[in-house]
Design goal:
There is one protein chain. By secondary structure, this protein is α/β, with parallel strands linked by helices. The protein has one domain: 3-Layer(aba) Sandwich (Rossmann fold). The chain has nine helices and ten strands. The strands form two sheets. A six-stranded mixed sheet has the order 6-7-8-3-9-10, with helices on both faces. Strands 2-1-4-5 form a four-stranded antiparallel sheet, with helices on one face. α3 packs parallel to α5 and α5 runs parallel beside α6.
Length: 255
C-alpha cells in the first residue's frame, strides 16, 4: 500500500533551556492511502501538538514528517504555504467558515486561490455538495444554517482540492449528537467512496469508533494502538473504552 504519511522520530519541546517541556517524545508511525486513523489521549497528552506539527501549524524540534515523500519539516515560506494549500485539507471544531461568503463561496475559495477556471470550480463544488447532501444550502450564509450543515460545508471545503491528507481536529466537538452522527457518516462516505485519507484527533470514544485504527498517546508517546478489523463499530467502541481505562485517571477526563 502507498504510504501517505510518515512520522519519523518526532520530538517537540516548549520553553527555554532552563525550563524545557517535552510535548512529543520520539513518536513514529505511518498512515497508508485510504486509511481513517484516530488519535486519542488525555488532555495534555500531546495529541493536538502532534496534529499541529503534521498540519504545518507548528514545527518539530527533531525528527521528520513526510507527506507523500515530501519532507514538510524542510519546507519554508511560500513553498510551505503552497503545500499546505494544495495538499492538505482541514476540518476544525469551530468550522472556520467566512461569514461574509455563502456556502458555495466558502467551498470554492481554495480553488479560486489556485486560479482554477470558473467552469471547473462550479462543476467540482456542485459534485462535492451533492455527495455531502448540501446542494440545497449552497446559496446560504453560515449564520443561516445549522451546526451540522456548517461542518458539512467545512468538509466539502477540505475535500474540494483532492488533498493527500485530511486533518480533523475535534470535528464533532461543537455538534449535538444527531449532527455529530451525520458528520461521522459523511466522514465514512469520504473515506470509503472518495478514498480520502483522514487523520482525526478526538477525545470522544463514540467519534473515534468511526475510524479504522486508533493511536493512543500518553505523555507524548504512543501508548497503544487498536485496529478495528472486522469488528462492528459497537465492538470497536468497547475496545476503545478498554484502552482508555488502561490510560489511568478519571475516565471522564480521558474521553
Amino acid at each position: 500500500m502507498e504510504k501517505i504519511l510518515r512520522v519519523e522520530n518526532v520530538e517537540k519541546y516548549y520553553g527555554t533551556k532552563s525550563n524545557l517541556s517535552k510535548a512529543i517524545d520520539n513518536i513514529s508511525f505511518e498512515v497508508e492511502k485510504g486509511e481513517f486513523v484516530g488519535i486519542m489521549g488525555a488532555s495534555g497528552s500531546g495529541k493536538t501538538t502532534l496534529l499541529n506539527c503534521i498540519s504545518t501549524i507548528d514545527r518539530v524540534t527533531a525528527g521528520h514528517i513526510k507527506i507523500k515523500e515530501q519532507d514538510i519539516t524542510r519546507l519554508k515560506g511560500n513553498r510551505l504555504n503552497q503545500f499546505r494549500r494544495e495538499e492538505l485539507g482541514f476540518i476544525f471544531q469551530d468550522f472556520n467558515l467566512l461569514d461574509t461568503l455563502t456556502a458555495y463561496e466558502n467551498i470554492a475559495l481554495a480553488l479560486t486561490i489556485q486560479k482554477v477556471k470558473a467552469k471547473e470550480i462550479d462543476k467540482r463544488v456542485k459534485e462535492i455538495a451533492q455527495k455531502l447532501d448540501i446542494t440545497q444550502i449552497l446559496n446560504k450564509y453560515p449564520y443561516q444554517v445549522s451546526g451540522g450543515q456548517k461542518q458539512r460545508i467545512a468538509s466539502a471545503r477540505a475535500m474540494i482540492t483532492n488533498p493527500k491528507l485530511v486533518l480533523a481536529d475535534e470535528p464533532t466537538g461543537a455538534l449535538d449528537s444527531k449532527s455529530a452522527r451525520q458528520l461521522l457518516e459523511n466522514f465514512e462516505f469520504l473515506n470509503q467512496n472518495m478514498e480520502a485519507t483522514i487523520l482525526m484527533v478526538t477525545h470522544d470514544a463514540f467519534t473515534a469508533s468511526y475510524a479504522k485504527r486508533i493511536l493512543f498517546i500518553k505523555d507524548g508517546k504512543i501508548f497503544n494502538e487498536v485496529i478495528r478489523g472486522n469488528d462492528t463499530r459497537k465492538q470497536f467502541f468497547e475496545k476503545i473504552i478498554e484502552v482508555q481505562t488502561l490510560l489511568g485517571g478519571d475516565l471522564n477526563d480521558v474521553i
